[in-house]
Amino acid sequence: MDIYKFERIWTMPTPKKSRHETKELLILRALNPRMNLSDKDSRKYYALEKGYQGEVMFDAITQELKNNCIVLNGLLFKLKEKHFQIDTVIIFQRTIYLIDVKNFEGDYIYKSDPDRFCKNDTEIDDPILQLLKAESKLRQLLEEYRFNLPVESYVVHISPTFTLYNAPQNNHVILPTQINRFIRKLENIPSTLNGGHERLADLLISLDQGDYPISPKPTYSYDGLRKSPYCSKCNSFSVSVGERKMVCNTCGCEERMESVVLQCVRELVLLFPEMRITTSVVYDWCGCVVPRKTIARVLKQNYQVMSSGKWTYYV
Ligand SMILES: [Zn+2]
Asked: What is the domain partition of the chain in residue ranges?
């Protein structure tokens, strides 16, 4: 008997599609502790990490929605050969909500012509402009597939430290002090979903491109990177490696050796996809401080063993 027959996915408040870091962010995150990023890459990393954190904060809020809706997080669509990204889509019975999450911190001043946010000598285009473009593109995409639910879009400023002076009144901008009210509004939307809504959600998921096909890549080389495991909590390289666990000398955090080694392998695969993973390669990447037998054990338990001649490698 098919037990899933009775499970109605659209009653689940959890996202039907969850969010993942872009490859660009993962690469910068892996490089950041191991090298001195250029100013440009450093700024990029900060902005991406900050943005991602904000989105995850908002996901935690939408996860609590109790009414009938489908939440899709982190979508990248392609329309007329151009990509456009949507942070969050929430499908209700009569409306689709499109939400862009911003995680700006500190005091900005709103200026018009062109509409922008200014802080010291930094200027950011008013995110509402980008939002309206995304909204129009999503409408076109929906029309193409003959779905005609109206789309309402919002920019949510998630950071409680964000202030925008001279902000014009705009019902599509949710400032930090308005988030609770906004969520309450979403929660009170009467909504009963049917199979059509689920088909729409499935369609949007199937149209998701995952990640940009070519993302900008910072310049780095194997030799230029610091080799050693480091604390996943505070990024400190001052760690004591034992047989079963690694202890951070800076923050005291303890991690199982298995997860330390796996993290190192994931970084290697991400940064050097062409490299064959062998015990020696991982041993070197771990700064020769993790015993070879620990590495071999973890690799054997978590990866497939391949052999070419006298070499053993793992995939
Ligand atoms: Zn630490």
From this structure: 3-207, 239-314
